[in-house]
Amino acid sequence: MAALLPTATPTRGPQDRRRYPSRPVWMGVPSKPIQAAKVVTIAFIVLVMLYPFVYVIAMSFASREAAASGGLFPTSFSLDAYRSILGGDVVTRAMLVSIGITAVGTTLSMIFTTTLAYGLMRTRDVPGAKFVLVLVLCTMLFGAGIIPNYLLVRSLGMLDSYWSLIIPGLISAFNMVVVRNFFMGLPSELLESARLDGASDLRIFTQIVLPLSKAVLAVIALFYAVGYWNAFFNAMIYLNDTTKWPIQVVLNQYVVQGSALTSIQAPDQPPPPGQTLQMAVIVVATIPILLLYPFAQRYFTKGVLTGAIKG
């Protein structure tokens, strides 16, 4: 009788699991040498990635003697580079231009992107919505090219105008699709109940849809802001007046192209070393947009993944 009774299967502990070859290697507990090797590898990767940023910031504060001596890291610091570029009018004016373009462009892009996404989410109710959606998606696959875009901007009279940096990229098809999919993931019962209560589409859009979509809107707004801030190619093509250059064109002209830095310095101060001036311009052009990331970081995963999966 005892042989007929079922026997209980013994449970396997962590030590017993290592003895069974059927268990995958990556699921086992790594040994201490392997853990130490992982820590050393990750620390090395972090050091390699952070060193260029720390070096650029440190060299922007380097003194004349430290910049002339070279080395991996400056030993003495000074604010001469920042006094020189901020005392002149080129960098400060370019910063104001970039801030204005980013603020106005992001605001208009969010307005047009959200309204278009809300209209295209109702393909059954809006006549021609499917056709417009196909046209928008086609822009992700086909582009007009530089010359047709230039001819279009010239025919619209936007050459040498700030609108040439905003209107051509007013709506991103990818961002619109993400926002549309997020809108389609909202509870349809909530929208239908609002319509039964007599709410108009504008009221539903502004008081129900937008407040429930703060996550994706914050992420898309950051995408637009970074795009407007970093754009320099359109400014090089459409802007002939150098006083209208944004900060990225100044950065490209004086750092990447290696133009003379005398025009961006304060006239009543001795010129600092060219390397410190270049690093200072890089820091000034990078820090403002980096300050936006902490405010939108918590929305990244929820906004992008939900908007890309739902619908």
UniProtKB/TrEMBL annotation:
Instruction: Tell me yes or no: is Lipoprotein among this UniProt entry's keywords.
Output: no
Q: List the membrane topology term(s).
A: Multi-pass membrane protein
Q: Does the keyword Transport apply?
A: yes
Q: Which UniProt key words apply to this protein?
A: Cell membrane, Membrane, Transmembrane, Transmembrane helix, Transport
Cross-referenced Pfam families, in alphabetical order?
A: BPD_transp_1
Ranges annotated as spanning the membrane: 39-62, 94-119, 131-150, 162-183, 204-226, 277-296
Sorted alphabetically, which PROSITE patterns does this protein's record hold?
A: ABC_TM1 (PS50928)
Annotated InterPro entries: MetI-like, MetI-like_sf
Gene3D superfamilies to which the protein is assigned, alphabetical:
MetI-like (1.10.3720.10)
In this chain the ABC transmembrane type-1 domain maps to: 95-296
Locations listed in the record: Cell membrane
The record's listing under CDD domains reads: TM_PBP2 (cd06261)
Coiled-coil residues are: none
Name the predominant localization: membrane
Chain segments carrying region Disordered: 1-22
User: Hey, which family's this protein in?
Assistant: Belongs to the binding-protein-dependent transport system permease family.
- Protein name, as recorded: Carbohydrate ABC transporter permease
Q: Which organism is it from?
A: Occultella gossypii
